[in-house]
Automatic annotation (TrEMBL), chain A:
Protein's cellular compartments: Cell membrane
Matches recorded under NCBIfam families: HEQRo_perm_3TM
Regions that span the bilayer: 36-55, 84-108, 129-149, 259-277
Keywords recorded for this protein, A-Z: Amino-acid transport, Cell membrane, Membrane, Transmembrane, Transmembrane helix, Transport
Organism of provenance: Actinoallomurus iriomotensis
UniProt topology in membrane: Multi-pass membrane protein
GO cellular component: ATP-binding cassette (ABC) transporter complex
InterPro entries: AA_ABC_transptr_permease_3TM, ArtM/GltK/GlnP/TcyL/YhdX-like, MetI-like, MetI-like_sf
Membrane as UniProt keyword: yes
Protein name as annotated: ABC transmembrane type-1 domain-containing protein
Automatic annotation (TrEMBL), chain B:
Keywords for this protein: Amino-acid transport, ATP-binding, Cell membrane, Membrane, Nucleotide-binding, Transport
Topology with respect to the bilayer: Peripheral membrane protein
GO MF term set: ABC-type amino acid transporter activity; ATP binding; ATP hydrolysis activity
Main localization category: membrane
Family in the record: Belongs to the ABC transporter superfamily.
Compartments where found: Cell membrane
Gene3D superfamilies: P-loop containing nucleotide triphosphate hydrolases (3.40.50.300)
Species: Actinoallomurus iriomotensis
GO annotations of cellular component type: plasma membrane
Domain of life assignment: Bacteria
InterPro entries: AAA+_ATPase (IPR003593), ABC_ATPase_HisP-typ (IPR030679), ABC_transporter-like_ATP-bd (IPR003439), ABC_transporter-like_CS (IPR017871), MetN_ABC_transporter-like (IPR050086), P-loop_NTPase (IPR027417)
UniProt protein name: Arginine ABC transporter ATP-binding protein
Pfam families assigned: ABC_tran (PF00005)
Amino acid sequence: MTTSGAKSGANPPAWVKSARQLERERRLRRTGRRSASVATASTVLFLAVVIGVVVSSPGWPRVRETFFSAGRFSDAFPDVLRGFWLNAEIFLIAEPLILCLGLLVALARSLTGPVFFPIRALAVGYTDVFRGIPTILLVYLVGFGVPALNLRGAPSDPAVLGGAALVLSYGAYVAEVFRAGIDSVHPSQRAAARSLGLSHAQSLRFVVLPQAVRRVVPPLLNDFASLQKDTALVAVLGPLEALRQAQIHSADTFNYTPYLAAAVLFIALTVPLARFTDHLAARAERRRAPGGGT
Amino acid sequence: MTETPALLRMENVWKTYHSQPVLRGIDLDVAPHEVVCLIGASGSGKSTLLRCVNLLETVDDGAIYLDGAELTEVGADADRARRRIGMVFQSYNLFPHMSVLDNITLAPIRVHRTPRATAVAQAKELLERFDLADKAQEYPDRLSGGQQQRVAIVRALATRPSLMLLDEVTSALDPELVTEVLSIIRELKESGMTMVLATHEMGFARDIADTVCFLDDGVLLETGPAEQIFTEPREPRTREFLQRVLEARRI
Ligand SMILES: Nc1ncnc2c1ncn2[C@@H]1O[C@H](COP(=O)(O)OP(=O)(O)OP(=O)(O)O)[C@@H](O)[C@H]1O
Ligand SMILES: [Mg+2]
C-alpha cells in the first residue's frame, strides 16, 4: 500500500506560481522590508538616547579620561593581548577535559544496580562539593594547596593548577547539565531501544545520548562562555594572563583603561560563541518544525 | 453542495518540501455539516492537507478560506482561525506533562477564557461520554493507545470548534473501539459538526462520509459521493487503489 516517489498521479500538473502567490510573496517582502526599517530606526534612536544620557552626565569627562583613554589603551593592549593568549590556552585545554569529566560523572550517576552504589555515591559527592565551593576559593585551594603538599611529580605551574581548579569546578556543573539532558529523553525512547535488543549501555550510547547531547548544546555553550571569562580568576595565582597584565599596567598609572582592553578581548571571544549558540539552536528548531505556521 | 456557501474552501493549494511537491493544486469545498473523507495511499498527502488547513504548514501557493475569510492572507491571525478548528493528530500529540483533564481544559481556560469550573465540568461530561471518566487524573503515558486517541478527540472537541480535522482516528483502536469511535463520530455528524477525516478504513469512510476524496501522490484525483466512489469510481487509479485495499483485506 505505498506509492513510491513521483511516478504515480495522472498527468502530474507542473507548478507555475499563480498570480495570487506572486502577489502574496510581494506583500511578504514588503512587510519584511517595513519590519527591517522599523528595527533599524528604533535601534538608532535607542543608541542615541543612551549615548546622549551618558555623555551629558556631569562625571563624563573624568570617566572618559580614566576608562577610555586612547593613549593608555594602545600602550597596554599588546601586553594584555599577550596575556590573553594564556587565557585562551587555559580555556581550550580545560574545555575538552570538562566535557569528558562532566559526561563521565553524569553517566556514573545514571548507573543502576546496587553494585554501582560506591560509584554513584562518589559522583553525587563530587557534584555536591565542587558545585558548592565558590570558584575563586577553589582556585586558591588548588593553586596554593597542591604545591604545599610537596608531592613529587605534582605540577607547580600556576596556570596548570588554576586550569585544574576550573576543570573541577566546571566539571560538576557540566555533569548536571548532561544529567538533565539524559533525563529529558522520553522513557519511550529507551523502551523502543531495549525492545530492539540493545543493551542498557547500547541504548544509552546510540539512542539516549545523541538526543540528550543535542538538547544540551545551548546550555553547554553557555557554560563555555562562562568558563572563558572565569579563566581570569587564575590571575590570583600570579601567571601573566590578561587580567594580571591589565592590573600591572593600571597600577603604574592609576588609569583603568587597560581593564577596558581586557574586557574588549573577552567580549571578542564570547560574542562569536553566543552567535554560534544561536545558530545551532535555530538549526535544531528548523529540523524539528518543518512547517511555517507553528 | 454548490448552493450553500462552503465552510471550508481550498483553492489550488500547493505544498512542497525541499522542492518535492506533496500537495499539487488541491481544490476542495466543504459545506457546513458535511463530512468529507480523504482516502489514498500512505504518503499521498492526507496529513499534510489537514495540517495546511490548520495553518501548521504555510502553503506555497493557493488559498484556504474558512467561512469566507482567507486564512492564508498575509498577516492574517492564525490563532483566531485555529480557535474555530479542532484537530486530532495521527500520533495524538497529547501533552505528556499534564493530566488528561488538564490536557482537555487547557485551551478552554487559556484561549477561550472559560471559567475553570465550567471547563472542568464540560471536560468531565465529555470524558463520561467517551467512557474515560475514571482517567481524568491520569497522565497520557499511562493510557492505552486507544484511550489516548479518545482523549485527543475530547481535547479537540472541548473548544466547541465549527470544523473538526481528524487524522486517522481509528488507526490505534481495536475493532470494538473502532465501532465506538465511529458511533461517536456519527453522533458528532448528527449534531451538525463539519468534519474532514483522513482514513485508511474504507468501511468507515463509506459509512460516515457524505463526500469521499481520493488523493493520489498529492493530486485530488477524484471527488464524489461515498456510494459512487466505492461502487463505480471513474478514475482507473481510484479503482486500482480500492482493488488493492480490498485484496489486502481478504488476506
Ligand atoms: N516535514 C516534512 N518534511 C519533508 N517531507 C515531508 C514532511 N512531512 C511529510 N512529508 C512527505 O510528504 C508526503 C505526504 O506525507 P503525509 O504525512 O501527508 O502522508 P499521508 O497521506 O498522511 O500518509 P499516511 O497515510 O501514512 O499517514 C510523504 O511523502 C512525506 O514523506
Ligand atoms: Mg497521515
